[in-house]
Design a protein that fits this description.
- Helices cover about 45% and strands about 20% of the residues.
- It folds into 2 domains: about 5-140 and about 260-305, Rossmann fold (3-Layer(aba) Sandwich); about 145-255, Rossmann fold (3-Layer(aba) Sandwich).
- It is built from 11 helices and 11 strands.
- The protein is α/β, with parallel strands linked by helices and about 325 residues long.
- α1 runs parallel beside α9 (about 260-280), α3 (about 80-90) packs across α4 (about 105-115) and α6 packs across α11 (about 310-320).
Length: about 325
């Protein structure tokens, strides 16, 4: 049984990271285990920017978006020498294991650190893209999807008032989950995602047909990985000869107070991660499968590509 562990957040911030960190800390303390917080992700390991945490250190954070521990890029950690230095800084403080909360890039760093040093590592999937293999859910995806829906609702009002096409670019460089979910829930007339080939001429013709059938405005949701929203909007405007406006939501999707779902699920994952780490488990990522917390092999999580749910893809075909 480990007596001292650490927790850090890495990569892009996501709503619910604070809830997960809080659960890790308070679970460890409840079990009588010392717990350290690391500021600014992997950079904090190399800069020795870490502190022993008490219960009060995670008070008043569950409702806050982002991550109070901070996150930052660290090129030094990408080298084996850097990872060995980080490991030595952990050893110097008697830290025997570490919980890493982040997306696929952060989890790949965790895999390398574990493989090269042998330190026990447990990961939690913290990313709004919901693209970590083996888990139905990643921390922050629900809040981000609801942020997009709120934007779509507002854009629908102005699009309908001016009889416009509204093209909305959302995050999702390699995964169209956010666009697909928001497009279905927001009643979009077209959803463009990197996983599914599309023809902009066909999309444009569909918008024209919709207009001719009495639909005076349309919403098009574009995942950033499917193409530039601005370029797609310009193409649609030229092809349809209809007034078109483009909104790139950008980093607003990362922020905001986490939803109830993100707070509760992140807390569940944080508890499981702390208990697993304390009891000597390593090289696992905790996620959800059909509503239940599951342990996912870390190597599988970072090397296998998560597919979109076929039922949602089919639903989108029917509804748009």
């Amino acid at each position: 049984m480990l007596k001292s562990i650490a927790v850090l957040t890495s990569g892009g911030d996501s709503p619910g990271m604070n809830a997960a960190t809080r659960a890790v800390v308070r679970t460890a303390l409840f079990e009588g285990v010392k717990v350290w917080g690391v500021y600014n992700g992997y950079r904090g390991l190399l800069d020795e920017d870490m502190f022993e945490m008490k219960s009060r250190d995670v008070s008043d954070i569950i409702q806050r978006g982002g991550t109070f521990l901070g996150t930052a890029r660290c090129r030094r950690f990408m080298t084996e020498e850097g990872r060995q230095e980080a490991y030595q800084h952990l050893k110097d403080r008697g830290i025997e294991g570490i919980c890493i909360i982040g997306g696929d890039g952060s989890l790949r760093g965790a895999q390398k650190l574990s493989r090269e040093t042998g330190i026990p590592i447990v990961g939690l999937p913290g990313t709004i893209d919901n693209d970590v293999w083996g888990s139905d859910y990643t921390i922050g995806c629900d809040t981000a999807a609801n942020t997009i829906i709120d934007a779509l609702n507002k854009l629908r009002d102005t699009a309908s008032s001016h009889s416009r096409i509204a093209v909305v670019e959302v995050m999702g460089r390699n995964c169209g989950w956010l666009a697909l979910q928001a497009g279905i829930a927001g009643g979009a007339e077209a959803i463009l995602i990197p996983e599914v080939p599309f023809d902009l001429d066909e999309v444009s013709q569909g918008l024209i047909d919709s207009y001719n059938q009495g639909r005076r405005y349309s919403i098009v949701v574009v995942a950033e990985g499917a193409g530039s929203g601005i370029e797609i909007g310009n193409y649609i405007a030229e092809k349809t000869q209809m007034e078109t406006r483009v909104s790139v939501l950008g980093h607003i999707q990362r922020g905001g107070s986490p939803s109830v779902r993100d707070r509760v699920k992140a807390s569940q994952l944080g508890e499981k991660a702390a208990l697993a780490l304390i009891n000597g488990q390593s090289d696992v990522v905790f996620g959800f499968n059909q509503g239940h917390v599951v342990a996912i092999d870390l190597t599988d999580a970072v090397t296998r590509k998560k597919p979109l749910t076929p039922e949602y893809l089919e639903l989108a075909k029917v509804l748009v």
